[in-house]
Amino acid sequence: MTDTPRRFTGDTLVIASHNAGKVREIADLLGPYAATFTSAGALGLPEPEETGDTFIANAILKARAAAQAGHVALADDSGLAVTALNGAPGIYSARWAGPEKDFAMAMRKVEDGLAGQEDRTAEFVCALALAWPDGHVEVVEGRCPGTLVWPPRGGKGFGYDPVFVPDGYTQTFAEMEPAAKHGMSHRAEAFRQLVERCFR
Fold first, then answer.
1. In what order do the strands lie in the sheet with 121-131?
2. pLDDT digits over 158-189, tens only?
3. For the purposes of burial, counting CB atoms within 10 Å of the CB of 191, is it exposed (0-12), middle (13-18) or buried (19 or more)?
4. What is the pLDDT of residues 76-106, one digit of tens each?
5. Which residues are catalytic?
6. Which pTM was predicted?
């Protein structure tokens, strides 16, 4: 990443995801900055294997794969990093939920790992990579620190939200109204940085 960031100047942005919900969310966040949005899924692009060992590495891998379609592409990689578990589940956050996306099981796995541990700090991390067809990539990373609680609380979030209380708050992400969560989340912080760097 250079000190002088490359600006997005095109009309079409490819969102490197096959998840329709994520595509909608990102298109909403970046609506003012691109005329047209499409997705890796809509273009029939295969999902690359996430072989990176960091959030940033996996985001770059996905963005570069999608940029091969000839447009600038944006990818994100995000997850929960638990201090006492040496950063796990980290890049494997989704995989801990298994093929059935059973996050109740994934949250129980985290809680079982914390048995006997006093340190319950954790953070959500979101890496965003914006890739051009010529291979250039701009990267940002947002973080939201907090504490893990048990049992899970709230029904408004997804993933690990019911066990995560962000610093300075008493509610879990899953107890908050979505607008409140989106204003402070790791993803919101990453998008703030990206817009400042590449879209303004």
1. 36-39, 12-15, 72-82, 121-131, 137-148, 164-166
2. 899 999 999 999 999 999 998 899 889 999 99
3. buried
4. 999 999 999 999 999 999 999 999 989 999 9
5. 77
6. 0.91
